[in-house]
Write a structure and sequence with these properties.
Elements: E1 3-4, E2 11-12, H1 15-24, H2 26-31, E3 40-41, E4 48-49, H3 52-152
Length: 153
């Protein structure tokens, strides 16, 4: 014998299945104007269930979706941070390159200055040697004249 739901005409093999259907099937409850919030509420998506077994099946799937969504959100945050890090890295590379160029120019200036100073020092050394030689020559002449004078005295 089959049992039919008087509200939605769905067919059942047992009267207990029919009674359970009338109490829990949302579409049938809707036809009966007996829509109630279910006893079991999903804390993740706020969906209501009248039956615990349906709630448990839903909960497993909902947790997986929530974890997947959380992981995707976390991945997006990480991607955004990575992109920001890349941009910052590029800025730092540019600054470093500018610093290297400035340092290179400054080094070249210092090298030229050192070369100029070395040249100037070399010139002064030469002048000093000439002056020393000149003075030594004068001293020699003086000494020689003194010797001559002593000899002829």
């Amino acid at each position: 014998m089959n049992y039919n739901c008087e509200f939605c005409n769905k067919e059942f093999k047992t009267s207990s299945s029919l009674n359970n259907h009338k109490k829990t099937a949302k579409f049938c409850l809707n036809i009966q104007n007996r829509i109630e919030d279910g006893k079991y509420n999903c804390e993740i998506c706020n969906k209501n269930f009248n039956r615990n077994d349906h709630y448990q099946v839903h909960l497993e799937k909902c947790k997986e979706r929530f974890e997947l969504k959380s992981n995707k959100d976390e991945l997006e945050k990480i991607k955004k941070l990575l992109e920001e890090s890349k941009e910052e890295n590029n800025k730092l590379k540019k600054l470093l390159q500018e610093y290297k160029e400035d340092s290179k120019q400054e080094n070249n200036k210092l090298k030229r200055l050192i070369e100029e100073l070395n040249e100037e020092c070399t010139e002064r050394k030469l002048l000093m040697r000439k002056e020393i030689m000149k003075n030594e020559r004068k001293q020699f002449e003086i000494d020689y004249k003194d010797k001559l004078i002593k000899t002829y005295k």
